[in-house]
Structures are given as C-alpha cells and as structure tokens.
Model the fold of this input.
Amino acid sequence: MHWTTEQVQALAPDAASNQAAKKLLKLKKWPLLAYNEAAIWGECQGSGSKPYQTRIALEEPAFKCSCPSHKFPCKHALALFLLYVQSHNAFKSTEPPPWVAEWLAKRKAKKAKKPVNTAAQVKRVAKREEKVQAGLEELSLWLRDLVRNGLGELQDKPYSFFEDMAARMVDAQAPGLANRIKELAGIRQTGQNWASQLLKAVARLHLLVESYQRLDSLPSDLQHDIRSLIGWTQTKETVLQQTAIRDNWLVLGQYIDSDEILTQRIWLQSAKTGKIALLLNFAHPQSRHSLDLGWITGTLRAAELSFYPSAYPLRAVVKAHDETSSITSLKGAPNLQAAFASYKNALSQLPWIERFPMILENVTPTQANETWWLTDTSQHHLPIISQDLWELLAISGGNAITVFGEWQNNCLYPLGAWNDGNYVDLAPVV
Done:
C-alpha cells in the first residue's frame, strides 16, 4: 500500500499528536532517514545528546520509538511517516542497521508463533468506527449549515474554512472524506458554473455521509464502495482471493497523475464480453520504476483479473498475465445516446463514480466557438479536452472514428483512438 498524508494523519491517536508531528517535519532534525521494502527508520534529534531511534514496519503498519511517550504512534513515528510520504527522496534505500533488523526479526518470529488476536482486531475496528461516526455527525451539521447559509458566501471563505473540517475528518480516521472536503475549495475557482458544480459535490458528499449511517441496510457490494470512499482500505491480497476472470484484455489507455504520490491508471476491456477494468498502481515520485510498465496501449494481453467488490465493479488487480499481441478491433457505444445510457445506469448503482470510461464509435472531432466536440451520426455533441486535439483531428481526417476516454467534470478526456486498423495513444505525457 502507498500512503497519503491524510492516511498517515488518520493513524494519530489524537489531534495534538498530529500538531506535534508537524513541528518535526524538518530534515535538519533527522540526521538519519532510510528505508527498504519492509520498513522505514530514522533518528530524530531531541533535547538530549542521543537522537531518538524511530522505526516503522510498513506491512501493518507497526511503530517503535526510543522516546518515552506513551502515545502510539508517537509524534516521532508520525513525523517519520509523513516525511517518507512527502519527502521520499530524502530517504536512502539501504540495509537496516542492527536496531531495526533485530526489531523486524523479533516481530516476524512473534507473528509466526502467535495466532491472530481476533478480539483485539475487533476492538480496534470498533474504536475506529466510533471515531468515524463522531466525525460524520459533525460533517453532517457542517454541510447543512453550508447549504442553509447559501453557497454565495463560499467564494469569500478562506481556504482554512475547508482545511479545518478536512483536518477534523483526518482526526476521525476518515481520510476519504477529508480529500472530498478539500476538493470543494478548488471547485470555487472553476469558472461561471462553480456554484452548480459545488452543489453537486456537496450533494454527493451528503449522500455518502447518509449512506454510511445506514450501511447495514445496503447491499454488501455497495457497503464495500461506501467504506472505501470513507477511507477504509482493502488489501490486494484480499482481493486476489476473489474468483479471477481470465481473458484477453485490450489496453485502451493509461496515464500517470503526479501529486504527493504517482497514481497510474490503466484501462482495459475484455475481448470476449466488453467488460471494462481499471488497474490502479501507486508509487513515490522517486520510485517510478515500481509502477507496472508492462501494459502497452493499443495491445491485447492475456491475463487473469480479480475485481474489488463493488456495486459497479471497475477496479481490478492482476493475478497472472501472459503474452501480448496487437488489437484487431474495438467495439463501443454506437452513439452518444447509448454511451450516456450506460453512464446513467452506472450512476444508478454507484453515484460517486468520478471517471467513467467511454468507448464511442462513429464520432467525428470538430471545433466550434473555441470548443472541441465529438459529434455522432445523429449530430449529438460531446465536449472534449486534450493536450493535443489537433492530433485527434489529424487521425480522423475529418471522418468518423472510434475514441476511448474518461468522462469527468462534464467533459471527455480522450486517451486513445481507433481508425483504419490502427490504435493511437492519446494519453497526456507526464
């Protein structure tokens, strides 16, 4: 698992620990910062002559520090973890020193002998549930006040208005909600339609809060979606235990988002059934090589995929894969009306879909009023945004082609195009 700032902060025992950790986010306080695949470790200079030795086992995660604090994790462990997420290039990849290696070995031996403490796990989950529920109640009141007072006031609100509530969700161990609250602040700057877009985002957030309050009454697959959106995680190892689908998968498009961590999105389509799959991979900016670079846009690859439980399953993990060959055909929605019927059906099952995959047949790229469009044979139009729309026009030669892309924010972002037996990668270069 690759961690974000919000997820690390959600591990803090209280808000005061996060505030104390922020004061330690200075590299000069850490004469040693290092890591390997299993752990992170560092030495933090305190008021004494000897620095505190802090170590984190990444698998669980688990923490140990030589400081006298009774909080778990302590401020040094939180700061070390945050530095690893935010300043990964400051860490040296190396073999652990004895004080780290011995701790990891003891943990491994203890884990091999000691059975899983189910009761303790249940207790930890119950404690987190209490924190999440308390946070949701506070967020629900905040949303109601926001709508009651009117959205017009929000453009004059400082960023801290949103950031403070996001921090409260981090304290409540609901990092997924914290990210959505931060996104509200950015919507204010999106142009003339910011108020309608913000209202939609607030409505989706309110629906998520209400859905979590009624979680037990919802279908099990939808429960998985809602818990994931709140911030509960499910490991790939658990997903791989699901029944896998073996097929030839068309690599429709892929790109990498660059933020605190790199997020790689790879879109696939089953050659037999047309089912769409999304592979998500994460890496630190300095560890780009750890992404899965074996999927080549415009090719066909035999693979076994296991899907995350969901009311509208898209995300999958690879269980096994084999040879690669060339795409020979590409099938999608025959017109825009059919494409949006599929989108409407998806939203009816999972209202929080933010990036919806669309394969559009028989569409022609055109430009009018400084806006680019895809136009189908019934003269219906769909707005598109891309780094190089002239390339898309050149591929089409003014004729109808097949385009694959993501529908988000009321626009299609083209990632690939099929014309005259050739598939062209249109993904942005990062």
